[in-house]
Amino acid sequence: MKKWLLGGVGSTLALILLTLLAIPMLMLLLLDDDGDQAEAGMVGGVGGLSAAVPAEYVEWLLKAGAICPEVSAALLASQLAAESNFNPTAVSPVGAQGIAQIMPFNFGMLRDDNGNGVASALDPADAIMFQGRFMCSFAPMFRGGASGDELVRFMLAAYNAGPGAVLPSGCGTANTTTCRPRIPQNGETPPYVDRIMANLAQYQGADPNTIAADGAWIHPVASYTTGGTFRQVGRHWAMCGWHTGYDYAAAQGSPVKAVFSGTVIHASWGSDAGGTGAAYGNQVIIAHPNGMRSYYDHLTAFAVSQGDQVTTGQLIGQVGQTGNAFGAHLHFELTKAAPFTCDNFIDPHAFIQSRLTAPTNTTKTTAGSTALTAKVIAAAKSQLGVRYSYGGGSLDGPSANMSGVVGFDCSSLVRYAWYQGTGRRITLPRTSEQQAAQLTKVTSPQPGDLVVFNINGNGYSHVGLYLGGGQMIHAPNPRKTVEITTITSGYYANQSPSYRRPA
After folding, report:
1. Which of these, 98, 100, 43, lies nearest to 68 by C-alpha position?
2. Mapping DSSP to helix (H, G, I), strand (E, B) and coil, where does residue 346 land?
């Protein structure tokens, strides 16, 4: 942040540039029609940090790394190393303060993110969340002129030298012609950006989606409804500030089975030796051959003992509500390695769902079939009236974002509809930009197709579900709820709509 004073930009002009450029873009980030948020399992999610990151900052880096798809927890960690070497009390010669080196004229943008009553650049939690939001505010500025690593490099340069040093004079957003962004050649910003990108791998943890595991996995409970979802934010979850597992709500006494083969390393009360705490009640922990561990909590009865070798699908206990539980359910967790820490949790439901055995003796339904798309549309319509929530929404329904707002953003709504409408067989990419890039483009849309919008030519930042007859259902923005609207006239007709179809 301190480099905003270089290249002829004094503190007064830097403040003007911030007011004219950065703050509107930050508001755009919060109010944009999409506001896609990276889910856990991406680089920015749980499992995205290595042991090189100081443990006391992992929780907040994971949260900040889930604000937007372009900014990962590992990128933020590498940036903090470059800014302050993770020193929360660092003060630069030009007055930049704290672990994220925030200039005083930006203090007004700090929030009290950890709820201690003070918003401070010297508070690592507040500073890291500011860093994540501020970095993400640059994404819509530069998306029209760059993508991928190049886009990230421009965002880092803006954090270091100010957006006015990256965009040509008179340009509020980038494009590929008259407003092409560039790295300012001021002698400091280029090595700053290069250092962060070069060291990125040092702070990245293993991607849980690459963890090898032979054979199919199963869900631990066969018949269930969704309770708490992974990374749901709330005060109930003190350990990480968010829900570290997935709750399988089921009848008391329902069978609980091993999701994969392994060795039972704990089968007792949670506070007994080897357990993770009394709040989990009766608990079974299984160590799997690939290094992962699965945790089965609040059980009412055990069917295994410590040291037992279990196979996939073997009965290990029964659903209960022991420990801190409200209603019968299985609180189920997966860690990618042994330490029971926030940076090791992965989304257990999504992980297992992607590794289920393909159904046998069933007739495959194609993505374009009328029967299937009718179910997809019905799933979407079941959410009419649900609040817009930037970063909210999961495969199983509305969920809370980092501000506690429960609902969907545009891409999570269509993702939910396709997942539920296909009987949990089709999982779409998370963001509208990814959906536009990875799904099949079609010129003759059918109901159930995705309709994506290149808003103002700045990239695919909004998506809805096409209903036919020139209508779509979508989650518009924070001022509205899930609704049906027309795309053949008015605002959306002028935003370059095109169509995508899952394979």
Report:
1. 43
2. strand
Q: Is residue 77 within 8 Å of 87, Cβ to Cβ?
A: no
296: left (phi over 0), alpha (psi -120 to 50) or beta: beta
Residue 309 pLDDT: 87
Which of 292, 304, 305, 272 has its CA nearest to residue 332? 292
The pLDDT of residue 484:
92
Specify the residue for token string 């992992």: 58
Q: Any idea of the CA torsion for 211, 218, 247, 284, to the nearest 10 degrees?
A: -80
Q: Which residues of the chain have pLDDT under 50?
A: 2-47, 207-213, 358-368
The closest of 109, 86, 77, 62 to 345, measured between CA atoms, is: 62
Cα gap 415→398, rounded to integer Å: 12
Q: Supply angle C-alpha 57, 62, 63, rounded to 5.
A: 105
Rg (CA), the chain: 24
Burial 68-101 (b: 16+ CB within 10 A, else e): bbbbbbbbbbbbbbbbbebebebebeeebbbbbb
Selection from 251, 242, 247 nearest residue 227 by Cα: 247
Angle at 436 (CA atoms; ends 434, 438), nearest 5 degrees: 65
Which tens digit of pLDDT belongs to each residue from 149-176? 788 899 999 999 999 999 998 898 888 7
Residue 495: DSSP 8-state = S
**For the chain, the helix, strand and coil percentages under 3-state DSSP, each to the nearest 5:** 30, 20, 50
Distance of CA 420 to the CA centre of its chain: 20
Q: CA quadruple 190, 195, 197, 198: dihedral positive or negative?
A: positive
**How many CA atoms lie within 13 Å of 77's alpha carbon, on the beta-carbon side?**
31
Please report which residue ranges of 143-265 form alpha helices under DSSP H: 148-161, 163-166, 189-198, 200-203
Give the model's pLDDT for residue 151.
Answer: 86
Pairwise CA distance, residues 132 & 184, whole Å: 22
Pairing of strands 460-468, 450-454: antiparallel
Within 425-492, strands assigned E span: 440-442, 450-454, 460-468, 471-474, 483-486
